[in-house]
Amino acid sequence: MVTDIDDIALHRLRKDGQRLTTGRQLILRTLQEADGPVTIPMILQRQPTLAQSSVYRNLAVLEHAGLVSKISMGDEHAHYELGEEITHHHHHHTVCTSCGKVRDVTLSAAAERSLDKALHEAAAGAGFELQRHRLDLLGRCAECVAAG
User: Does the keyword Transcription regulation apply (predicted)?
Assistant: First the structure.
């Protein structure tokens, strides 16, 4: 089954001198079907035919090609998701500092415009050309708060 993401991946990987292998397609499909950012163990659970070392290598290639975004929070497992340029879904994340859960958060269009304007002004004041932004909200999820 060829999808739009396969076409985008094929083009981006060719630009990087890489190929769209079956393993890379499986990883992209897993990220596309996930309900939020996932860890490598979660990818391996959903795609047991893939070798862990292969997933690490392929995620690095996919990230370099701009197909995948990595959300890294300290020593915990990094989380991965499709790049926003592919999904055309601009969002941010809540990251639980207790259990490590990462969830997507989408702001209203008005809030996103306001945040974008403030960040562009801050970047310009520092002589920095802002291309895009990502916001991670750090705290504790409802489950961890309820647990004490």
Answer: yes
Do 60 and 97 fall into the same domain?
Answer: no
pLDDT band at 147 (very low <50, low <70, confident <90, very high): very high
CB-based contacts of 143: which residues, under 8 Å, 6+ apart? 99, 101
The rounded distance, in Å, linking the Cα atoms of 86 and 75 is 28
Are residue 53 and residue 14 in the same domain, yes or no? yes
The 10s digit of each residue's pLDDT in 15-48 is 999 999 999 999 999 999 998 899 999 999 999 9
Cβ(50)–Cβ(41) under 8 Å? no
> Which pLDDT band, with edges at 50, 70 and 90, does 11 fall under?
very high
Provide the CATH number for the domain around residue 23. 1.10.10.10
- Whether residues 24 and 69 fall in one domain: yes
Cα 93 to Cα 96: distance, rounded to the nearest angstrom: 10
Domain with 45, as residue range(s), is: 1-88
- Where is the domain boundary, 88, 108, 130? 88
- Region 59-88: mean pLDDT is 83
